[in-house]
Amino acid sequence: MLRIILLLFVFVAVNTLITWWLMRKKTGTKFSGRSLGCLLGIGALTGILPVLFGLLVPDFHGMHPLLCGFLTGFLEYALVKEISKYFALRFAVRDTAEIVCRYDVVIAACLIAVGFTLTEGIITMFFLGANGLMMTILPYHILFAVVMGFFYSRSLAAGSAGDRILSLVIPIILHTVFELWHFALIEAAGGPRMGSMTTEQVMALPYLSLIQPLRVISGVSYAVFVVLTVIAFVLIGRWGKKGKLRERIDR
Q: What is the distance, to the nearest Å, from the Cα of residue 127 to the centroid of all Cα atoms in its chain?
């Protein structure tokens, strides 16, 4: 219980710090309290949708680990989450008059991602406890939000339908890759039975030989996404300092 409380404190503190940092990076007219609450709130509400959708998605256990990892990562996680955040961003851009340039769209997308992360982390904690909460400590949704905000803002500034498609497709691809190896490893290690099997049952797993390679690939993938997430934060900072993405958007 103490571990969960400490992790929850760190989780909330990290996302509070990210919100404060994003608000400082917002140049020009700062977001009002109402706008900030709207962006975080719509993100938080959007975070509930994947949970409801997950109840309708079939179970992919029993398939080849890579196929199970792909379908689980794509259908249960990447697709519904990124579509939810995409429409949340579209709504926010139309509803919030303080979003006036491309950089504002990126910041708004990140704030929506923070709200989404808070809901996702709390819900995951109730289902999986401390282990589930640890999975959400890395603010990887910021990475997807920066990509989504960049292309969606460019579509608003240039009127490009292609950029609008990319603003949804690229985050879905990135998110799928992020989840794929983790769920493939779980399936190779026994899926729902993982952690409760005897030594004999573990040795009899049909994909036992894939566990170690998948463990390595999963670790490397996670490290890569940590680096990409750091790069996303660096880009937000640089774009703000150098005055990039100042093109006005067309709602």
A: 18
* Amino acid in the structure at residue 117: T
Tens of pLDDT, residues 128-161: 665 555 556 678 999 999 999 999 999 999 888 8
Tell me: pLDDT of 79 over 80.
Answer: yes
CA distance 174 to 141: 10
Rounded-to-integer distance, Cα 188 and Cα 211, Å: 6
The widest CA-to-CA distance across the chain, in whole angstroms, is: 64
State whether the Cα torsion 50-87-160-236 is positive or negative. Answer: negative
Q: In the beta sheet, which residues pair with residue 248?
A: 101
Residues facing 101 on adjacent strands: 248
- CA end-to-end span of the chain: 47
Instruction: Say what the pTM is.
Output: 0.92
